[in-house]
Amino acid sequence: MRHNGFLALARSPYAPGRAPILVRALGDGDAQIRKESASWLLPDADRPLELGASSIAVILSHLAVPEAPGHAPSEEVLSRLTHPQLVPLLIVCLEHASPAVRGQAGTRLQEISGQAVVYDPELEPRVTRRAFAVWWWKRTHPDGSLEGLLRDLGAENPSLRWRSAKEARSLPLPEVRDRVAQVLAKERAAWVQDEQLRALEALLELDLELPQRLDARARAEAVERALEAWARARVQEAQRRNR
Questions:
Q1: pLDDT tens digits for range 163-202
Q2: What does each C-alpha distance from 87 to 90, 155, 168, 212, 218 come to in angstroms?
Q3: Rounded Cα gap, residues 137 and 240, in angstroms
Q4: Measured between alpha carbons, how far is 79 from 54 in angstroms, rounded to an integer?
Q5: Minimal CA–CA distance to 199: which of 215, 186, 175, 181?
Q6: Which of 64, 78, 65 has its CA nearest to residue 23?
Q7: CA-to-CA distance for 225 and 24, rounded, in angstroms?
Q8: CA dist., res. 199 & res. 181, Å (int)
Q9: Greatest CA separation found in the chain?
């Protein structure tokens, strides 16, 4: 019965909550279900990836226990993912509540980076996540530079400002965050400001509950909340430095 239920869901590519449910099959008590689970989750390389960080965390929890029933199928899932698909999700898992999940994410990222960044479980998770995020940004932007990004965030061309804000989301550095906040406060193009808002939301790890489309009033209120959060973050950082 469970097998048929999982199979029906696997054949429904647009079913809501599909991946979080199918990921449970990786550790199911039925060996046949476990055997087929990876192909259910990732049936087609051309299909957009549905796995989120929460699903990857479940997979990493299986991998943390070599004798776990879900170990082999979880390893198969990760082996089917490309680095551009997998690395951003592993980076998010570096701040997971479970030390085992953080350890698996860090160990695999260290391996993928060729030890360009070394995972240290004693470091604060946020510091570790930032280090790997910076490494990944540099690897995926070989012709880019931090100075260039900071400059382009305030470029005269609005399309360049928009693109730079989108890139800034994945680079959690204080100087990037501060520059995004500065240009957000002065931006006049609504469509650029929306992207800057989402970048600052990500960099501050906020949940502004931004809708897909913002009207002028909602945008102004969101900008105000984001800038207030940015100001608080800077005060907290200054206080930590002065301790």
A1: 999 999 888 888 899 999 999 999 999 999 999 999 999 8
A2: 5, 30, 17, 26, 33
A3: 27
A4: 18
A5: 181
A6: 78
A7: 38
A8: 9
A9: 61
Nearest to 104 by CA among 92, 90, 115: 90
CA angle 82, 68, 93 (to 5 degrees): 45
| Tokens read off for 81 | 């993912």
Phi, psi of 200 (to 5 degrees): -65, -35
Q: Which residue type sits at 73?
A: P
DSSP secondary structure code for residue 150 in this structure? H
207: left (phi over 0), alpha (psi -120 to 50) or beta: beta
The pair of structure tokens assigned to 77 is 């899932």
| Half-sphere exposure at residue 215, Cβ-oriented, CA atoms within 13 angstroms | 1
Q: pTM of this prediction?
A: 0.75
Distance between CA 175 and CA 192 in Å, rounded? 19
Q: Decide if 94 contacts 53 (C-beta within 8 A).
A: no
Which one-letter amino acid corresponds to residue 196? Q
Residue type at position 78: L
Mean pLDDT of the chain: 87
- Nearest CA among 52, 76, 48, 49 for reference residue 62: 76
